[in-house]
Design a protein that fits this description.
Layout (H helix, E strand, L loop, with lengths): L8 E5 L4 H5 L2 H10 L4 E7 L14 E5 L3 H13 L4 E4 L4 H10 L3 E5 L10 E3 L2 H5 L6 H11 L16 H11 L9 E5 L11 H13 L3 E5 L5 H10 L4 E4 L4 H10 L2 E5 L2 H8 L4 E4 L5 H4 L7 E4 L20 H4 L3 H16 L1
Parallel strand pairs: 1-2, 1-4, 2-3, 4-5, 5-6, 7-8, 7-10, 8-9, 10-11, 11-12
Helix pairs in contact: 2-6, 3-4, 7-10, 8-9
């Protein structure tokens, strides 16, 4: 096993998307709590790395850019840092390459990983650690730490830092558009697949519902998803402020400023949860147990149950169209909003 008092440098590898990165923060918190004086670094894809700006549980966020030469350069840098322990919380073969490149004394992964011979600490399914078949993505990652002796039994919640620079920037962008002290509702009407995307018209009705309760809706998406923002603005009978060019730190600051988040199951939903914003998240094809918000803030998930859930979500083999997300009624979302807002006042 690992002689933890001698551990001075730890690397965590998580080469995934926004939501996956947010849900890694409980593991980073657990590591920092256990090893307050150690150096703890994390390797992330370059486009998602700014998500951890200001996050105190890590010493350095190492960005991985595409291209073989750049990746070899990162591999050499990881080797130079002489890590004592390296965790692969991702599982992919690229992540395994970087774990091996560290030549860390302790290389920790799961027995199901490809090229498992490159690890010297291999463990069974995280479900065995928690003694439960139904576990959250965060618990899956925490289990890998728990197997090697890091205390994780209290299951820390996800957390992001809100930087002063991002707070000022988002304030400057909002001030010409939203009167001061107006309650904000952050809305994310986009999703990574059509089986997870509630209709724009439903989000428009939700913006109207929120306006009746005194909220100004601010909807966000990426530049490539601008179309869904335009449909939302066109169909809503109330003003909706939209942004398609915010940085990840700005989105974090906006989520922290909002009194409510409403949106599809997405990385943005996990960002809102990580700054303790009350949340209503609409689910379609994805695994609700595995991907629901990981937070102590008031939250609800809204869904319509189908026998085929969860599914990969790239197509709807059962119906041709994703009835799971299309069947979620606006009234169910409205009721969830009221309950979450009431819970937030308690």
């Amino acid at each position: 096993m690992i002689d933890w008092p001698k551990v001075k440098r730890v690397l965590v590898v998580k080469l995934r998307s926004i939501g996956d990165t947010v849900l890694t923060t409980p593991s980073l918190i657990a590591l920092r709590r256990f090893l307050p004086d150690a150096r703890i670094d994390i390797l992330l894809e370059d486009w998602v790395a700014p998500l951890l700006d200001g996050f105190e549980a890590v010493d350095d966020v190492i960005s991985l850019r595409p291209g073989p030469l750049l990746r070899l350069s990162v591999a050499r840098e990881l080797r130079r840092r002489r890590y004592d322990v390296a965790f692969n919380l991702h599982g992919g073969t690229t992540a395994t390459f970087f774990i091996a490149a560290t030549r860390a004394r302790h290389r920790v992964g799961l027995s199901v990983y490809q090229y498992s011979f490159l690890y010297n600490h291999l463990f069974p399914s995280p479900a065995e650690f928690w003694k439960s078949e139904k576990i959250h993505s965060t618990e899956q990652q925490l289990a890998l730490l728990g197997f090697v002796g890091v205390p994780v039994g209290d299951r820390p919640k996800s957390r992001l830092a809100v930087t002063d620079a991002a707070t000022r920037s988002i304030g400057d962008k909002l001030s010409p558009l939203v009167p001061a002290r107006t309650p904000l509702a952050l809305m994310h009407p986009a999703a990574s697949s059509f089986t997870k995307q509630w209709e724009a018209g439903n989000f428009a009705r939700t913006a109207e519902f929120l306006a009746d309760r005194g909220f100004q809706t601010v909807a966000i998406a990426s530049a490539g998803e601008r179309g869904v923002l335009e449909r939302l603005k066109h169909e809503a009978k109330v003003p909706v402020v939209v942004f398609d060019d915010l940085t990840l730190p700005e989105i974090t600051a906006l989520a922290a400023k909002a009194g409510l988040f409403v949106g599809n199951d997405s990385g943005i939903a996990h960002m809102a949860a990580a700054v303790n914003t009350p949340s209503v998240v609409i689910f379609g094809s994805s695994n609700r147990t595995h991907w629901r918000p990981w937070t102590d803030a008031p939250n609800e998930i809204v869904f319509t149950e189908f026998y085929c859930q969860p599914c990969p979500g790239y197509e709807c083999r059962e119906f041709g169209e994703p009835k799971c997300i299309l069947s979620v009624a606006p009234e169910a979302v409205f009721a969830a909003i009221d309950r979450v807002l009431e819970d937030d006042q308690v």
